Amino acid sequence: MTYPSTYMTYRRSAGKDNASRQNPLTLEQTQEKLPQEKDLGPNNVVIKIHTVSLNYRDVAMLISEYPVPITEQGIPCSDCAAEVVGLGSAVKNFKVGDAVAPICYQGDFDPTDDSNSVAIGANGPGVLREYAVYQAKHLVHLPRNLSWEEGAMLPCAGVTAWNALDSLKTVQKHSSALLQGTGGVSMFSLLLCLAADITPIITSSSNDKIEAIQEKISQKIRGINYKTEDQGAKIKELTNGRGVDFIVNNTGVGSLIDDISYLCARGGTVSLVGFLAGWEADWKPRQLIALMRKGAKLKGISVGSKKDFEEMNSFIEEKKVKFDVMLDRTFGFEDAKKAFDLQLSGNFSGKIVVRVAKVEGRSSCA
């Protein structure tokens, strides 16, 4: 397979230090050079990007609400599904035509360790472009049962959900999980829970949204309207007084004490994933002692490692998990700005995907 010498990419506009919701950064298209096979390093892999999936982090960088340093005028987005189109001389575990995705955190580290690394789409070049070059050790094979759109959802939201659920290694009979909101991580968690026979309890301010998710995905899903219902009482009702085993916290530190109270008597996990409700809290530090009483775990989630990604992909293939129900809307590459506007608006459920490559050839990662 051959590939061109140049490609189109999006970059954030300049002025990241002065960006805000009232004055967000914009996306700007540029044409850039792509190294040819003779110029590749021995461990490099050239990928053709088929699809890109958006996360809240991508728009948070445009409005100065992302808590990690970002590159001025950097290429946004961390999640994509791509096809191998070029290989360095020493690459052994990939071949041309393979469906792959880059891991979100990259550096010179052991595959099980995601520390001291570069975050693609933030302080490293992202994937909102037609082609990219990565080292082979920073790529994983995608599950063969997924479409390009589904494959693009995995790297950040998928691995985050897998990690937040403790890789589903401690699942017990009657296990349940409380999932805050209907965004990407929550919906991924929901589908992984169903595949692992864990009861998912999803929260929303809209009864209609909860009912639509139950109708679209499964009647095994339980719902709580956090605007009109007492969450603690409802969780006890839905779990027969037991409490939940997992809480995927997308809102931030403000709800942590309540979250701990919702856990089962021993050994539950609260995974701190997001910050949608901001950075402040009105509880006192001594209230964290509740973690000790329950033998519970408060776990900070920063996506996950390459090993996590590969284990999740094996689970997805084994259980034949599909994520097509998560797709809210697909935009063409030329309409990427509209995709970002929709992500920032919050008026969607699940994932927003940008299709970079024209529809041609195979339609899935198989």
From TrEMBL:
Pfam families: ADH_N, ADH_zinc_N. GO terms for molecular function: oxidoreductase activity. It comes from the Eukaryota. Residues 20-354 form the Enoyl reductase (ER) domain. CDD domains: MDR7 (cd08276). This is Alcohol dehydrogenase. It comes from Clathrospora elynae.
